[in-house]
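User: I've been trying to design a sequence by hand for this structure and keep getting stuck. Would you show me what you'd pick, starting by listing the structure so we're on the same page?

Assistant: Good idea, let's start from the same input. This is the structure you sent:
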């Protein structure tokens, strides 16, 4: 992936990320996928403004706590069956982007066990928070 931090809207941001979070999910359109779970791998990048997330006192409440990312993924998977990876990516992106500190989000999901002759099949989305309207 090209560095998203080179995008002008993110030049004053830091990236907070969660890498290769592997968990079982009830996901897929085929009947055999609806009867149980399969492994998925989730990767998240959140872009947050440095001015709002540069700690002055080395305290967690001065930054975006990455527990938020982890718990958001677990909560969405716990809702139940998801047909499409696209739906999962969009759902995660929407919730993560709603956080007041998040300016942009990249979400990717992978199903590593679909084909024996490749590492994974997956989907990725990248979204910016809509621009704030001035007074």
């Amino acid at each position: 992936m090209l560095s998203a931090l080179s995008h002008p809207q993110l030049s004053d941001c830091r990236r907070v990320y969660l890498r290769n979070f592997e968990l079982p999910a009830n996901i897929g359109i085929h009947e055999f996928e609806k009867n149980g779970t399969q492994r998925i791998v989730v990767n998240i990048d959140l872009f947050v403004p440095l001015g709002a997330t540069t700690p002055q006192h080395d305290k967690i409440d001065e930054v975006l706590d990455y527990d938020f990312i982890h718990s958001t993924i677990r909560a969405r998977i716990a809702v139940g069956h998801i047909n499409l990876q696209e739906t999962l990516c969009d759902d995660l992106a929407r919730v993560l982007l709603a956080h007041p500190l998040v300016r942009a989000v990249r979400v990717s999901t992978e199903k590593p066990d679909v084909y024996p002759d490749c590492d994974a099949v997956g989907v990725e989305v990248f979204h910016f928070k809509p621009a704030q309207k001035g007074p």
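That's my pick for every position. To get oriented when you compare it with your attempt: The helical segments are 31-34, 50-53, 67-79, 85-97. Residues 67-79 form the longest helix (13 residues).
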